[in-house]
Amino acid sequence: MARAEQLEPVVRELLASQPLAVLATHGNAGPYASLVAFAATDDLRQLLFATTRATRKFANLQADPRVAFLVDNRSNDAADFRDAVAATIRGSAEEVGDAEREGLLALYLGKHPHLRDFVDSPTCAFLKVHVESYYVVTRFQEVMELHIRP
Asked: Which of 26, 56, 74, 128 could be cross-linked to 80 through a Cys-Cys bond (beta carbons 3.0 to 4.6 Å apart)?
């Protein structure tokens, strides 16, 4: 198992290099997966994303805030079995409060400036995920864990 200081640069590079992630939520109809634009805070403790309040994912988050994200750098090529990195990130989501909205929104829009109108819409919810753990897979089968301390 890699130590945190060895794994953190791998996680940082993966999160910085990928604009989209798969968000998994759970609701009355069962599990649900969505593609979302995301950003991570510098300390890796939070992931940020936005969604319209009328979506199934938002309804699921209202019922159960536990989430998993899948972020990967695959190229859909045979080399992925050797070279791709994937991370499952587990945590709990909540809407960003007014006190921290400006700073977190600046971080999010720094990565996704084209989403300014979307996040400024009154129908949009801006959310943060309190990350509990990263499960990172490399070389198709090497699994390393990075747990975030509260």
From this structure: 74
